[in-house]
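Memo to structure team: turn this sequence into structure tokens by end of day. - J.P.
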Amino acid sequence: MVDRTSCKIAFRNVNFYYGQKQALFDISLDVPEKAVTALIGPSGCGKSTFLRILNRMNDLIPGARMTGEVLIDGLDIYDPAYDVVSLRRRVGMVFQKPNPFPKSVFDNVAYGPRIHGIRDRDILQEIVERSLRAAALWEEVKDRLGESALGLSGGQQQRLCIARALAVGPEILLMDEPASALDPLATARIEELIVELRRDYTIVIVTHNMQQAARVSDRTAFFLMGKLIEYDETRKLFTRPARKETEDYVTGKFG
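Reply from structure team:
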């Protein structure tokens, strides 16, 4: 049985700035290993900024800077000696809208392993099949591997993007509203998949859908205006929140 109490990621006094504008204020929290942590809160409250700190995507934004520490397995990923390429192999990312490459289904999934130097066709086939199976897509596309990924439905494209993220063997999977562009049926498939994947991966998901957070996550963090208001077990946060702001948000009084 997985120990869901062990800490995989630790944020310590994290502040984040876009130029002069402060977007996150003094945030500290521990993310448990092999569990799903949901980030909720109204638009513009800092959820996506917080998520992107974890794979240093914010580094690409001119004028962006962070203070504090972000530790994965006890090592500070913002230490100048930390290899960003290896970080992004350990921390996969799935975006709000499916963004498959204009390549075949096979080449989409094989893209990352090839970048990391794997050329052997048999090994690539094995990785592609394993990743597509993990993303609950293999049975639907096994006879279409040579066809363009752009011919898949929206829900299939998003699961393909999950398979692409899994193909490089990450430990952590970041999901930024992965089902917000999908219909209810495709959304249900993605949610089932998240529940399956948490057996093997540490997952952090941003969602506007509080029912989704309640269905798929073990712990939930509520953000408001760049501050972490409350962080607790999901069931407790939704049924017995400690803060009035949290209660107002989860009961629909604002947001």
